[in-house]
Amino acid sequence: MTGVAARRHLRRWTRRFREARMLVAALRFKYQPVNAHLIPIRRCNLSCSYCNEYDDHSLPVPTHEIIRRVDRLAILGTGIITISGGEPLLHPDLEMIVRHIRRRGAIATVITNGYLLTRDRIQRLNRAGLDHLQISIDNVLPDDVSVKSLKVLDQKLRWLASGATFDVTVNSVVGAGVRNPSDALTIAQRARELGFSTTVGIIHNGTGQLLALDDPQRMILEAIVALGSSAFDFANYNLFQKNLAAGTPNDWHCRAGARYLYVCEDGLVHWCSQQRGHPGIPLEEYGEHHLRTEYHRDKDCAPFCTVGCVHRVGQVDELRHDPERALGTWFAAPGEGLPPRLPVPVRVLRWAFVTSPRRGIFRKAVARIIGGRRVGIILPVRPPE
C-alpha cells in the first residue's frame, strides 16, 4: 500500500467516526441543521445551459465574511458544511475556508466541476483537511449543453485517485437535455473503476421540479443505482427517485430551511438553490425559532422535487420518526407482500436500536461513546409545538 493510500484509509476511518457522531446528533436533536450549502462565489468558469446557479462576473465573497458565516452555522449545530457555487475553486482562499470548517467541528465538503483541479490543488485540499469532494460530470464528450465531460476530466479523476486523501464522489445526471442517456452509466462505471463513490441525479427545471424520464432513461438510472455500494443511496432511490423516474409525486415532508440550509453569496438563508427567496432571512439572524418553523412548514414544491441533497437530509427524519416504516420503504422487496431486504449491517442496527428490549441501553451507550451533543442556539427559543 502506498503512502497516499495508507493516509487515505486512515483518514477515511476517522471520517466515518465523525460522520457517525453527526448522525447521532441529527437523530437526537431535530432542530439542528444536518447540511448547509455555503456559496463563497457565484461566478463559474463554465456556462452549462441547464444551470441556473452561476454568473460570469461576481467577485468572491470576502474571506472574513465566509468565516463568519461558518461560525454562525457551527453555532446552529450544522453537521456538514458544503462549499458550492458557482465554482468554489475560483475562491482564492478556499483552503482557508475548508480548514476553518474543520476547526469548527463540521464535515467539510466541496462540490466542483473539476476543471480547475491540479495536482498541487489536490495536495492543498489534503492539507486543509477536506473530507469530501464531489465532481459533477454530464457527458462523455462535450456538447453545446455542457462541457463537463469525461474526456476532459478523466485526467483530473486519475490525479484524484492517486493523490487525494479525501473521499471523492462522481455525480452524473439523466433526463431531458442529456443527449446520450447511456453516458451517465459510462461515467459511473469509470468512477467505480477508479475507486470513487457514485451518485446520479434527475435533471430538473429552473425551480428544481421534475422533468419526467422515458423508459431508456429509467433503465440507465436503475443500472447506476445498482453499481453503488451505499445502502443509503439505494434507500434514497427507493424513497424518491423511483417515483420521480415514473413521473409520480413523492409523499414526504421537506425539511429545507431547517435540516438543510442554502446560504447564498449575500448571506441569506433559502430552502435550496432552486427556491431562493424562501425564506430569505440573513444567516446572522437565523435561530432556533426559524429552524422550528421551517421544519414543520409544508412546501408546495416537495412532491416533484429532484434536489438530492434535500432528499438525503429528509431521510434522517424519516428514520427518526418511524424507523420500522422507513426501513421497510427504503429496502422494499420488488414483490407484493414480501418482507424488506435489509442488508446484514442494517439488520443488526435495527435489532440493537429499534426492536431489542435493551434498545434504550444501546442508544444511551452510543450517545455517550460517540457523542452527538446538543449545540447551543443564540436566539430566543419558542416552546415546542
Description:
By secondary structure, the protein is α/β, with parallel strands linked by helices. It has a single domain (3-324), classed as Aldolase class I (TIM Barrel). Helix content is 44%, strand content 11%. It has 13 helices and 9 strands. It has a 9-stranded mixed sheet, with helices on both faces. Strand 5 (167-174), helix 6 (182-193) and strand 6 (197-202) form a beta-alpha-beta unit. Helix 7 runs antiparallel to helix 8 and helix 12 (344-355) crosses helix 13. The longest helix is centred in the first third of the chain and has 26 residues, at 3-28. It starts with a helix and ends in a 15-residue tail after the last helix. The model is unreliable at 376-385 (pLDDT under 50).
Radius of gyration: 20 Å
Low-pLDDT parts are 376-385
Kindly report how far apart the N and C termini lie: 54 Å
What is the class in the CATH system? Alpha Beta
| Fraction of residues in helix | 40-55%
Q: Largest beta sheet: what is the strand line-up?
A: 6-5-4-3-2-1-7-8-9
Number of helices: 13
- Average of pLDDT: 88
In total, how many domains does the architecture comprise? 1
Write down the overall geometry.
Answer: globular
Question: What is the annotated CATH architecture?
Answer: Alpha-Beta Barrel
Which structural category do the helix and sheet elements fall into? alpha/beta
Write the element-wise H/E pattern from the N-terminal end onward.
Answer: HEHEHEHEHEHEHHEEEHHHHH
CATH superfamily: Aldolase class I
Number of strands: 9
What fraction of the residues are assigned to beta strands by DSSP? 5-15%
**What do we call the CATH topology?**
TIM Barrel
Report the biggest beta sheet as strand number plus sense, adding barrel if it closes: 9 strands, mixed
